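task queued by scheduler; priority normal; single chain, no ligands, no partner chains; default sampling; output format set to structure tokens
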Amino acid sequence: MADSIQTLGELRRQRGQAGQPGGGIKREIRDNLVAKLKTGEPLFPGIIGYDDTVIPQLVNAILSGHNFILLGLRGQAKSRILRGLIDLLDEQIPVVPGCEIHDDPLAPICAACRARVAAEGDRLPIGWLPREARYVEKLATPDVTIADMVGDIDPIKAAQAGLNLADELTMHYGLLPRANRGIFAINELPDLAGKIQVGLFNILQEGDVQIKGYPIRLKLDVLLVFTANPEDYTARGKIITPLKDRIGSEIRTHYPTTRQNALAITTQEARTARPGGLKVEIPSYVREIVEEIAFQARAERRIDKRSGVSQRLPITTLELVVSNAERRALANGEPVIVPRVNDVYAALPSITGKFELEYEGELRGAEQVARDLIRSAVGAVFTNMFDGADTRTVVEWFDLGGSLPLGDVTSADDVIAQTRGVQGLQELAQRAGPNSTPPSLASAIDFVLEGLYAQKKIGRSEERGYMAGTELAPRRPARREEPAIDENVRMPGTKKKYYN
């Protein structure tokens, strides 16, 4: 094993006197990527929906040795992709122990390490740096300084050691030099002040940095990667043109294009398993409705398209849906947690904060817009699943005066008992999937009722449950009465009518 090598002499004998082969970090990542491509190993496990779009562009950028930027709206797995680059690094690399910039013992670039190599020669002990320690990530904020990113001269260190300020040994390294021989990621690049972005020019073009105008230059070996929202949305700042010109590849990310991909992402990310012994069974139609809410929101004219609707919306919504079903199961002593469509309305807190409204949406309010999205999503899924189904007998039952006062806390047994007299309802519920337990049958019944409500075939209110009609009749505003005419009073500017 590599970590069995303990001294510089042993390392030289293993690799030869020519030193470390290849072209540094970009060559290392490229070689490991090529090996994965040859074996067919997954490149970015957990990244779903990008196989034919984003990942091929990433592969091309890495094969070309480019620094690159991922450009896309929030919740499009940009940061996760960058962190996935760690798997393309070697498991560990040799370093000079104690060096802040992880210097290569075979080719040190800092003055202190060069002095140690010259003094100790083959007896110099070496350390081994794991791949996880070679990834440095920084969230760009307006208060970041050039000293934070690149470094500064430490006058106290110079005074204590009796050194000239221009000596490399007086340098305090920033984040960028500390990422030497690794990956340096900057999230939300436009938020970085313009003068700080200028400080990245040299490292992108020449591969080195200069500190405070002193003749101290470090030939760093680093892969620079960035993320950003599109410029038309990011009003806080923008990427300056010279910096964009120096970034090798600009790769656009996107939201899931199919409901199947979205379902896979949410299933992977949502924390739906619950401790305590209760089993969780989420019906497929509930999962599809939750995903459809996000698709409906991205197409909704009352929601700002430029801000996007994150994939976190269905993830957190599903978690709250399961939690509401868990609360009901615990209250009613049910042995299994089966969410219902009605539980989606209990997840409004996870929906309303995930989108920005246009003016028309502001007039309606975020909660009402969210309710409209839920109803549209239920209608889309119900229509697809029950296309051609005869629902007339159920609708007629309500038209004849029937009502069902069901809520999200009604037990499964009560739902089944109260709906047993609605001709055709439970038979329709059987089409929604296997309903082997009372909670699953109650969920399917609720789905049918919510679907009929979404299609405006029956009505529903929070207080009275399901009933006949499409909507509760809206209250008309009171008619404005004309003021009485008084023949004895004349208002200024009038000739024919007089008002009191």
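post-processing summary
- The mean pLDDT is 85.
- The first strand starts at residue 68 and ends at 71.
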